[in-house]
Amino acid sequence: MIRLLMNKKEEYVSNKKRFFDSFGPDEEDVNLKNDENEEKKLFHDEDYDFLFSGNCDDHFKIGLSVSKKSLKLFTEFYSSDIIIVSPLGLKSVIGADGENQDHDFLSSIELLVLDNADVLLMQNWEHVVTVFDNLHLQPKKSHDTDFSRVRSWLLDGHARFYRQTLIFSRIPAPQINSIFNRYCTNFSGKYQIDLLKSSKYQLGTICKIGFQLAQVFNKIDCDSPTNLPEQRFNFFIEKILPKFKDEMMSHTLIFVPTYFDFVKLRNYFKKNDISFMNISEYSDKKSVERARYLFFHGKVHFMLLTERFYFYKRYKIRGINHLVFFDLPSYAEYYSSFCNFLPDPKRFKNGQLETFSSTVLYSQFDAQKLCAIVGFQRANHMINSDKSVHMFMTE
Questions:
Q1: Percent of residues in the chain assigned helix, strand, coil, to nearest 5
Q2: How far apart are CA 128 and CA 103, in angstroms?
Q3: What secondary structure letter does DSSP report for 254?
Q4: For residue 63, what is the DSSP state?
Q5: d(Cα 75, Cα 64) in Å, to the nearest integer?
């Protein structure tokens, strides 16, 4: 940002040392992270190092004031030309409902860039929605504003129709589409690039599975997306889980994208005394190591694992014979990654591999994620077909 805004010969940046002290990497943290990654570094997806190298704190906020020959960092938001902030950082400034909310500085935003929106899905998306809800509201105070310089359309409450909004995401998602449809209201119109037409979505990540694997996709009939979570849970309990309780189906990993579904399944397993371990984004390192050990050695029948845990840690889970995707992963590459975890050379028995399988639950409302996994044409057929079960065999 400094290189873009300032000429090297004339640059003057105030609070530069404070910036590097606040956001620069700490040497001890770097060494600790390197030690933690030593075992699993070979299994990182291509985006991991890009996202998690350096300072990856998700609670930050900084204002920038730009003049002809200087750049001021850490300026107050009301005197800033540019604000760089995380949704969590901005939520802490705005405040919660019922508190003394301070959102007046958001009333005059002319350009909003939502970068790495897919990464924000792995955090608390409600913070993103809160930010958009507080844009261009009626200011409570004047804040020493020179009203002679305020544009008339701002005074008339039409700021949202002039705001430019840029949203960048590696994946399509309903939550991002909702932001696009509800809050992008520029009078000149809007444009969205259809990721489903890209070559990546024509074939799907199913083509990246490197061995012979039977994959069964089960369609859940549902009339409304609001009823889908409950119907998915009931479908899993009544039709999927009984098949995997057999001793021959041990070493079963259940991949759960959302934490709410994870908690619901965990409580059900505990209530019914089902042999399992669980790993989520809130599990500490000791609990993770214990769960992985017991699952690998067959001491427990099931393993529950959340998508967010894998997003943040990228551990290779060993000892899997059978995969169950309770819902389609947000990142399609996770599907092929977990399938490729199955043939583990350390688990050869008499020179032969175990029998592996993958079972997936999907509905008509999962079209975008399904396209990314099986490809556009196959997904279109699976959603519109009268059949509720589709099977693929990779070679």
A1: 45, 15, 40
A2: 14
A3: E
A4: E
A5: 6
Tell me if the pTM is above 0.85: yes
Instruction: Choose among 76, 69, 36, 68: nearest CA to 52.
Output: 36
Query: Residue 201: which H helix or E strand, with range?
Result: helix 199-203
339 CB-side CA count, 13 A:
28
Distance linking the first and last C-alpha atoms of the chain: 48
Cβ 330 vs Cβ 173: under 8 Å:
yes
What are the structure tokens assigned to 13, written together? 């940046």
List residues bridging with 357 in a β-sheet. Answer: 214, 322
DSSP letters of 264-298? HHHHHHHHTT--EEEE-TT--HHHHHHHHHHHHTT
Which of left, alpha, beta for 76 (phi over 0: left; psi -120 to 50: alpha)? beta
Residues in the chain, total: 395
> Are 114 and 85 contacting, i.e. CB atoms less than 8 angstroms apart?
no
Query: Residue 159 in 3-state DSSP?
Result: helix
3-class DSSP assignment, residue 256:
strand
Q: What are phi and psi of 61, to 5 degrees?
A: -160, 135
Locus of tokens 């998508």: 307
- Residue with token string 């009333």: 107
Q: What is the dihedral of CA 161, 166, 170, 172, to 10 degrees?
A: 10
Closest CA to 33 of 44, 17, 46: 44
- What does the angle CA 379 – CA 381 – CA 383 come to, to the nearest 5 degrees? 70
Return the closest-CA partner of residue 182 out of 128, 227, 224: 128
Determine contact, residues 118/169, Cβ cutoff 8 Å.
Answer: yes
User: What gap in Å lies between CA 331 and CA 308, rounded to an integer?
Assistant: 11
Per-residue pLDDT of the chain (395 residues; tens, 9 = 90+): 777 777 666 678 888 888 888 887 765 555 555 555 554 444 566 788 888 887 888 899 999 998 888 889 999 998 899 999 999 999 988 876 656 678 889 988 999 999 999 999 999 999 999 999 999 988 888 877 777 778 888 878 888 999 999 999 999 899 999 999 999 999 999 998 887 777 778 888 999 998 889 999 999 998 899 999 999 999 999 999 999 999 889 999 999 999 999 999 999 999 999 999 999 999 999 999 999 999 999 999 999 999 999 999 999 899 999 999 999 999 999 999 999 999 887 765 554 556 899 999 999 999 999 999 999 899 999 999 999 999 998 87
